[in-house]
Amino acid sequence: MTDDNKKTEHKKEIDDVSGVETTGHEWDGLKELNNPLPRWWLWVFYACIIWSVWYWVVYPTWPTLSGNTKGTSGYTQFKELKKNQAEIVLRQKAYLDRFEKASFEEILNDKELYAFAMAGGKSFFKDNCATCHGTGAQGAKGYPNLNDDDWLWGGKLEDIKQTITYGIRADHDETRVSQMPAFGKDEMLSIEEVNDVVDYVISLSSADKSTIHEKGAVIFAEQCAMCHGDDARGDSFFGAPNLSDAIWLYGGDKETVIESVHSGRGGLMPSWQGRLDENTIRELSVYIHQLGGGE
Amino acid sequence: MTGCNKDSVSYFAKQEKIYPKKVWGRYRKIKWIVISVALAVYYILPFLRWNRGPNAPDQAVLIDLGNAKAYFFWIEIWPQEVYILTGLLILAAILLFTATSLFGRIWCGYLCFQTIWTDLFVWVEQFVQGDRNARKKLHDGSWTFEKIRKILLTHFLWLVISLCTAGAFVLYFIDAPTLFQNIIEINVSQTVLIFVSSLTLSTYIMAGFAREQVCAHMCPYARFQSAMFDRDTLIIGYDELRGESRGKHKKGESWEGRGHCIDCTACVQVCPVGIDIRNGLQMECIACGLCVDACNDIMDKVDLPRGLIRYDTVNHMEAEIKGGDEQFKFLRRRTIYYGLILAVVGISLLVSIINRTSLELHILHDRNPMFVQLSSGEIRNGYTIKILNKTHEHRTYKLSISGLENARIDVKAAGNFTADNLYVQADSIGTYHIFISAAVSPEPPRDVVFNLVDSNGELSDDYKSIFISKRDR
Questions:
Q1: Three-class SS string for B367-383?
Q2: What is the interface pTM, i.e. ipTM, of the complex?
Q3: CB A39 to CB B7 under 8 A?
Q4: CA distance A36 to chain B (A)
Q5: What pLDDT, on the 0 to 100 scale, is given for residue B61?
Q6: Which of A101, A202, B239, B266 has the smallest set of CB atoms within 10 Å of its CB?
Q7: Is B374 in Cβ contact with A246 (below 8 Å)?
Q8: pTM for this model (two decimals)
Q9: CB atoms within 10 A of CB B406
């Protein structure tokens, strides 16, 4: 650009129309007017450049072949996250210390501890329990719905805690076990007998009471009442389901109930002792209890 | 760097230091009155008290960021009512537009804080260093002890004013008397310290150094005001017909065959933005009227009528030239439109403030699960309810539901609460999880209405929701 020097040394030229000085730059007869920018704008621009150099030095900025420049401050967002998380854990600790010492009764009456347990329980539930029980604890076939008021092994806080801690039919020594025999498969009942007793059991929770299933009632009293009770209301001590209510773990249609009686049932709830600590299990117990069905 | 040589083109302009001359007159007087009132309001307002009972702050004007509430005398704004603030801002903007199209840049000349604080700072300069010529001489002169003393004193006073400005600003956000006490004891939080120091610095820079540069190069309002101008807008005008041709005038000389402007440059010397108003309306002019005061003073001295430079409209001035008796036209299409918008925004704001209730009920239906079947065959739905208690007293409320027969309400919360006894603290939101159970056979979602009444029976609110009893496939 040999013209450059010529341009800067160019004599002042005033545009006729606007009365403003031109820069001397000309394109196809059009000349650029010179309305000078305030000088301090230039300083601000230089200051920004200096600041950006400082930024390159202090913060991670440039990509390199093996990663990126680290900067003298060693800052990373991951470190910041860790720091923030540590702060949160510290803040939680104050509640956790109180939570640890409080009884379930106290937790249910203390606004802060209650909120703490519910928030923690909700999060732990989604991490650990939702795989089988669903994110809303609504369950599925064979996996109990934890929102309702029907409990196989009891719905008091201590019962829930025991179930979570030791599991059902799990590999823990303290685990609770119940056995629904395979009446058909093991030839304890004939096909007709299974059919009769299933008709009777379904009639217990049905609104239609016109048909009387005498045969089934006799079989029920002989074979089933021991665990499920004479009135078929079950017993949470044995983990025997209530057969007279509207809730069916595996389904209440005839085919499914026949399947249950013929082949037996036995779902598995793992033991969480050792995998979750005591406080977590207690938070989960409160959360599940407050889902609506807690006794 | 380009442009050091006088002959070469300079792409960047150095800020010309402006030394406004002292002036006295009608508009200067108005400006001092406005400054006094504005500053008095600014400093006294945070200390005004307003009794709201024991559970709410008693500061008349307070923006309580910690609790996310704003108080303005009898009005209280919660975060969800921030539209009131939006309305106020719109109102302020339209008011500004209306005023500008009627009276020109009176905001810039009299009320803008940049103008007020610059005025204050210039006054300090004048007080310490003397009037225009003395200041100029001091500035251009060598660094004597006297110069250092005067300049240090000026900057010290500027910083004191800046500190007071910043100190008063934070009083609007934290209980003023307490904070004032804390500031005196230098026992304040880091946030307050950061705000006070950055505001001190910005006031010092903006009013001490940037001054007219703010209006010309930073303020967007200064730039788009020409959009509100028309030929009937009041501007500061130099009466060219009467003034030209200008020239020096000796006492006793005839005024025949020449203009009334004696080219004394008094109007230029007093101008805070450093322009010559005789060149016509310019972007930099903030319409402060000081040149009018200066020129009137000169006209009195040479025994000519006042108003060679005056507030006038383009149309009015031109009509005078033609000899007509043109009146000022305030009612124009532009001002009528602005007035209409002003009325609409103002009335809707008023209505929303008047209709503000002290109790609000919000209900959110549980999503997961949508409904639960109970062992008895009943269906249960869960809801999260939020009760906004905007009164300044702790209250209890009674919740009921209609549209669902024999519905049972269970409340899940820490402690013993029933639907008849929902407690919410003063000025806060109470959140409860509730269950509604009812014997319904599966049907499409049913519309239900929740009703909340406070225990005194004076406040109530409804909320529409649904009761779900079957899954839609």
A1: CCCCCEECCCCCEEEEE
A2: 0.82
A3: no
A4: 5
A5: 94
A6: A101
A7: yes
A8: 0.80
A9: 9
